[in-house]
Amino acid sequence: MWYLALLGALAVGANDSLPKGHLVIVGGGAIDRVFCEHVLQVAGGPDCHVVVITLAAGPPNPQSNHFRMGGGIGARNVSLLDPDDPKTALDMIRHADLIWFGGGSQTKLTRSLAGTELLAAIRKRYWDGATIAGTSAGAAVMSDVMIAGNSRQPGIPPVIDKGFGFWPEVIVDQHFVRRHRFNRLKQAVLEHPTLLGVGIDESTGVVVTGRQFEVIGASDVIIIDARTVSSQAKEGSTQDVSTHVLRAGMRYDLDKGPLNALSGSESIASDG
To answer: pTM of whole model > 0.70?
Structure first.
């Protein structure tokens, strides 16, 4: 398939300093069949072992939409992780091809797993080649600098907490266009100008392979970049960020920038 060929091409030049696995980061909302097929192909096909983590929504729940989504992508082997059974949970993670973080509260999820042997095992599986995926809150935890919520005061940067750091070069925000979160992510980026802001709308995701990612899904991914602008500040630049709109099939390189993006603010929705 063309998509697997692309993943192989993106991996060319990879070295031991980069994870062998992929990230699939979803902005929340409904996910259609074609999207699910992409996720499954990245993870290795219908026979791959999927572990679903619903802790962002509360205790493990086999009736939750997030668990059903794990089976809904078409995988034949889907398990629900229960951290109260650590031996079984660790065995699941060590044999997982796809680890799926569901939505809910990102702070609830990070507090459930931060500093645990389970999280260390998940990180090792990613470096060894597994796919780590997450939607909504499960997307927010992918970055190290994690947006945990809105500030109570207008114009004040959002609440920041520590995520899992699978994608440490960026700050992820989700439900992005639907919930008008442009200003929220921009404020977070201006507070951390060495990091790239990646705002992912609903029914949309990015597939991260090494230093590049590609957009899949129905809507937009907005890139907010203060890195070059901050480096030019001494030269008198008055622009605070640059922005790019990425749509399905478009790619971005963390070092080179947009490979086929739209520049400017097209389709970007701001907070009030």
So the answer is: yes
The pLDDT of 111-126, averaged and rounded, is: 97
Closest CA to 175 of 133, 143, 223, 220: 220
14 in any annotated domain: no
Cβ 245 vs Cβ 222: under 8 Å: yes
What CATH number should be reported for the domain holding residue 151? 3.40.50.880
Specify if 15 maps to a domain. Answer: no
Question: Which residues form the catalytic set?
Answer: 136, 175, 202
Flag whether 272 is in a domain: no
Structural domain that includes position 148: 2-6+22-263
Domain count, the chain: 1
Q: What pLDDT is recorded for position 102?
A: 93
Token pair 């997450």: residue: 134
* 8 A C-beta contact, residue 107 and residue 161: yes
- The pLDDT assigned to 266 comes to 45
